[in-house]
Amino acid sequence: MASQIAKTTQSLTTASEMRETTKMLMQPNANWEEYLTPAPLSIAIMGELVFISSDVHSDFSINKNPPKNGFQYIKYPDSFRACLMQVCNSGWQAFNEAHKNMDQIRIHTASVPDYMKAAVKILFNATDEVIETLLPNQLNNIRDIADECVKLADGVEKKYSDVISLIQELLEACVNAEHFYGEELENVQRKLEETKLREQTAKELNERSKKAMEAMAKQLEDAQDAYKKSMDDLPSGWEMIGMDFVEGLTSTVTSLLNGVTAIVTAPAKAVSGVVNALSSKSQSPEGENVDDITLMKVFSKSGEILQYAQSIKTYVTDSEIDWKTLYDQQKKCTMTTHAQGQFERISKDLKKLSECTPRREALLLCEKSISICAELATYTPDKDWDKKKTEDMIKKIQELNNEAWGFDCTSKKSSGSPALSPKPPMMSKTESSDSGRKSASQRASENAHFRIEQSREQLKQTRESYDKCVENMEKNQKELTDILCELQNCELKEIDFQTTIKMLVKGLDAMGRVKEQWEKMVRFFQMVSNIVKTSLSKTLHNFVTTADDTKKLSYNGKLFAKDLLYNQAFQASNIASLVHMISGTYTQVSNMYLMDRVSSLGKLMAMDKGNPQFLQERQMLQESCREAQNGILQLVLKNKKEFERKTDDRMAKIEGELKAILPAAPPEETERIKEIVQAGFGEGEGDYY
After folding, report:
1. What are the domain boundaries of the chain?
2. Which listed site, 295, 389, 397, 460, has its alpha carbon 20 to 30 Å from 371?
3. Residues 246, 227: contact at Cβ < 8 Å?
4. What is the pTM of this model?
């Protein structure tokens, strides 16, 4: 039964399945269409600015009170009309650059899966010497792509940043020139303050991503050190205990990699809310400041905690404890001694972290586990436990398992780690060839039921999150459409300075929204590059220098290093695949709805303002921008239906293949698992990221 469950789980967690699952889980946070919605409005606003600048009588100088060091972005401060044309020209260049660079990113990221396949083939089949020689080349190919894409995304982000800075400087110049006052002045000053806050928040997000990647590299080193130390301390003949430990440690690595990805994708919504909240600090339900890096480290321990808690529960059968299996006659100690040592190690690691609610929960789990293991260690064959003491211990073990399940669900929700995750190839190979390493069927079956329920709840919450994204986007869509109608109704004679300023403020806001996603793209590729650098430095170095002197397991230090290399390359490939999907969507939308409008804007800028076709061209640009708004909305709704279909298919496949081989669980057991999972994925914990 256990081997059949393992085989089915492996078929559900192939590389292609996990790439699709990663896309699904990250879609609400990596929803590119949400950021494309303001793009047609930006183009329409620039068209109106061209139109406004055609009025000769409205020109004036904004150079009355220039900054001490002169203007940094404005080239023609003596002509407001020329400044408006400079804004339009800069915007036109930004959209052109975005289209060209995103298409290159799409082409680059398409080749990452091939490099990943080559890397896996080398890891699986090559000798140590060949791995040492060839693997760095394949990983370097992925890193080169990431570094090139960082440059491409960075270039576009800078173009949008220049447009925003230009509009910002233009508005500040108008304020200093004292061309308007009162309520309008307050509105502009507030918008300028919000823009500066956006910029500050963007810098904080970049810094946070950098810290997360540095923390990840350190944690990966710690995982390898923990492996070596634990294997040195592991008594011979305890292969099953050793493999439980390795499985827990590799799940920590996987959670870390997913946690970094969550930190990079999650900020998008935080930034969007900055303007309304005017605060970049998130707080937990208790009101304490929550540090994302600390949370990532804490939640990365959930897999280990659950694995060791389940390893203790393995010795419980119905209402009895299997003392014969639990007590090692040769070593004169219980088999849970090693688990106690691991909980003490995790507890020590957690105490080094900053105070927060998840840390307290994890420490409490460790304390309960250490207490249970210590109590079990008092058992000796010549001194049997009475029924009451045994029942109390079984109850404690069951409660520990339930709480570990709940904590793992909270971790999965926060980090975006899939409920079903693949075992690294070397471990999977070792287990399938080692007939002595089989988890108890009861444990495997119970765990499979839990993962099915966890997958269902995770996909359900992802859908709800995506629904909210689309709902918010539709609200924004209405607001943007109203602005387009307002722009189109402006007649030349009605346009005064105040109207022009309002349009500049709206343009500043719209361009800011578009720029946010490019900032995130830069962080995506920086993360891929950093993951590969970590793989090539410490992990590959450990693989090369590890001697096969630890023979306590058929799974040795070199195989562990191989699995770490695989995990890191696999996550880098997943992120590249996600970005490939985003870049494909952008290129499609840009081709269909943006580039024709950008070209039309260029034509409008080049036209003679006295040409009768000028007004006609302006009208056509506004109408086509409104059509683009509707077209993007329809694409979003189409993608939403496709997303729902994929989540339904994924859940049906998991349930269909796993439930077919599982014995039916008692109704009360099913209900218990359901309650634990729903509580773990409940409201409140989502604020942790």
Report:
1. 2-688
2. 295
3. yes
4. 0.73
